């Protein structure tokens, strides 16, 4: 009995430690990458980042659809041993070598298809990273399975930082877009070196066709899921690069980085909290309703003002942080801010549907969203980057009611209950947007001055909470009063600690 208790305590400690290091890893990567990107943007043109974005699409596809399909079934198995990890190493290495060769050899053809001759050396240089990712995948799988997230976090922080320093040094010395390629190759190479040193594990070559047959069904599912994730997360960048070329892709990449930073930090964190809550409460409809409304409310109340701030302050933010040459990206930031706000709700809805066992609907909705975005883009790309950005936004907005209706029916929620959760943050954001618009009109001559942003942030910190409090004060919902949700952070924290 005592041994079981001790084992449970150890498992709880490992989960807590692993979660902490995993969150730190994600947060550090986001912050460091954004800082490095902001510095490099001062020295490089949008075209350079657009070319790198196209090359990254090939790497992300390889990782999500191919390497993960080999490694994830082993990570999920009950008792993986060194033979299985060596098998992952063998097949990921061989596959990585093949993919790197294909990427290098097809660079000329791909650059012709994208009508960008300067893409060829970028693809050839980045093919080295594909091979590195194949080599490192087995080590990552082994560390993840053993809950060694501290080692992974240290690896990520050091490799991103050192790679960024090298990239910045090369950009300052006039190496241009290839400084980004060298940065990425060095970062991936350092990540491989560090994880090998941390693992203290030497793999061997294992070619076993029986293991392929054993894991084939699981690998196929992982590959399909990875393909859907890749398309949903990167399909917009791919469409922009195909229709508008590297310069527009670079501008779009900056706008997407700005807005998605809010989404990744706030919405993704809330989704991680939501999944276990939804799973545990699915047998109690009332508890599930209240949990959903609270998480929805918190997601919106945190994300809406930040995205609203970015949308209205896009021009001064871009000038101060990235430089005037990136100003054409400002309208795209405003469009993507709306997209990210809608996406945060739709993704939460999908988490809920997955948690209660309705897995098909989110997949069908994701495919429909992608098809609609591609169709609208093919029509409106003639209006430039803003036209394509609004096409992506329209696809999310048009399909949002379908997602919300599905969730309301699954939970037995009435429309007005959901509106109650939406009202305070959305009303507060509208008033905030109007207030910031007036503020910018009054001091429009100081667009490139940091004090403008500081003043706007001070105004937002006063205006938004006041409007949320006024709106939320009169709203009541079934199973609890929403003023408790909006006005009592202590009760919120207790809800999530339970």
What do you see in this structure?
- The protein is an all-alpha fold.
- The protein has two domains: 17-235, no CATH class; 245-497, no CATH class.
- Helices cover 85% and strands 0% of the residues.
- The protein is globular, with a radius of gyration of 24 Å.
- It starts with a helix and ends with a helix.
- Mean pLDDT is 83; it is low at 1-14 and 476-498.
- The chain crosses the membrane at residues 51-72, 84-110, 122-140, 152-172, 178-197, 292-314, 326-348, 360-381, 387-407, 419-440, 452-475.
- Pfam families: Polysacc_synt_3.
- One of its GO terms (cellular component) is plasma membrane.
- Its main location: membrane.
Summarize the structure.
Keywords: Cell membrane, Membrane, Transmembrane, Transmembrane helix. By secondary structure, the chain is an all-alpha fold. The chain has 18 helices and no strands.
Number of strand segments: 0
What are the segments in which pLDDT stays under 50 over at least 5 consecutive residues?
1-14, 476-498
Proportion of residues in extended strands = under 5%
Number of helices: 18
Q: What quaternary form is this? A: single chain
Distance between the termini: 25 Å
Largest sheet: none
H/E element string?
Answer: HHHHHHHHHHHHHHHHHH
Outline type: globular
Structural class per helix/strand content?
mainly alpha
Helix content: over 70%
């Amino acid at each position: 009995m005592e041994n079981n208790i001790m084992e449970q305590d150890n498992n709880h400690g490992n989960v807590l430690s692993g979660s902490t290091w995993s969150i730190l890893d994600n947060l550090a990567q986001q912050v460091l990458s954004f800082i490095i990107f902001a510095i490099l943007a001062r020295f490089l043109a949008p075209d350079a980042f657009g070319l790198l974005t196209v090359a990254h699409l090939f790497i992300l596809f390889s990782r999500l659809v191919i390497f993960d399909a080999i490694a994830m079934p082993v990570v999920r198995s009950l008792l993986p041993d060194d033979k299985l990890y060596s098998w992952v190493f063998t097949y990921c290495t061989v596959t990585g070598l093949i993919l790197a060769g294909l990427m290098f050899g097809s660079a000329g053809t791909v650059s012709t298809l994208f009508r960008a001759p300067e893409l060829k050396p970028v693809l050839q240089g980045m093919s080295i990273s594909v091979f590195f990712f194949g080599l490192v995948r087995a080590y990552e799988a082994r560390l993840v399975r053993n809950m060694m997230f501290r080692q992974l976090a240290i690896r990520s922080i050091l490799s991103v930082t050192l790679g960024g320093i090298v990239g910045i040094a090369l950009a300052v010395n006039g190496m241009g877009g290839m400084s980004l390629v060298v940065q990425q190759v060095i970062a991936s190479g350092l990540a491989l070196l560090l994880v090998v040193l941390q693992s203290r594990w030497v793999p061997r070559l294992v070619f076993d066709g029986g293991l392929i047959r054993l894991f084939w069904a699981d690998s196929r599912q992982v590959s399909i899921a990875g393909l859907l994730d890749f398309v949903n997360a990167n399909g917009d960048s791919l469409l922009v690069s195909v229709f508008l070329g590297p310069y527009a892709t670079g501008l779009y990449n900056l706008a997407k980085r700005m807005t998605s930073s809010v989404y990744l930090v706030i919405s993704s964190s809330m989704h991680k909290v939501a999944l276990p809550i939804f799973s545990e409460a699915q047998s109690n409809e009332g508890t599930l309703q209240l949990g959903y409304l609270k998480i929805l409310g918190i997601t919106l109340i945190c994300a809406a003002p930040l995205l609203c701030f970015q949308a209205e302050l896009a021009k001064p933010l871009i000038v101060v942080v990235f430089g005037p040459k990136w100003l054409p990206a400002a309208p795209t930031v405003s469009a993507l801010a709306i997209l990210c706000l809608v996406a945060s709700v739709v993704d939460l809805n999908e988490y809920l549907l997955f948690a209660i066992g309705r897995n098909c609907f989110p997949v069908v909705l994701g495919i429909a969203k992608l098809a609609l975005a591609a169709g609208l883009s093919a029509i409106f790309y003639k209006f430039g980057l803003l036209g394509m950005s609004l096409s992506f936004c329209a696809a999310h907005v048009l399909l949002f009611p379908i997602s919300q209706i599905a969730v309301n029916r699954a939970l037995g929620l009435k429309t007005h209950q959901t509106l109650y959760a939406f009202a305070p943050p959305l009303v507060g954001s509208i008033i905030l947007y109007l207030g910031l618009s007036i503020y910018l009109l009054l001091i429009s001559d100081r667009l490139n001055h940091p004090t403008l942003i500081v003043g706007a942030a001070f105004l937002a910190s006063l205006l938004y909470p006041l409007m949320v409090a006024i709106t939320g004060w009169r709203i009541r919902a079934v199973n609890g009063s929403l003023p408790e949700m909006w006005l009592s952070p202590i009760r919120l924290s207790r809800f999530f600690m339970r």
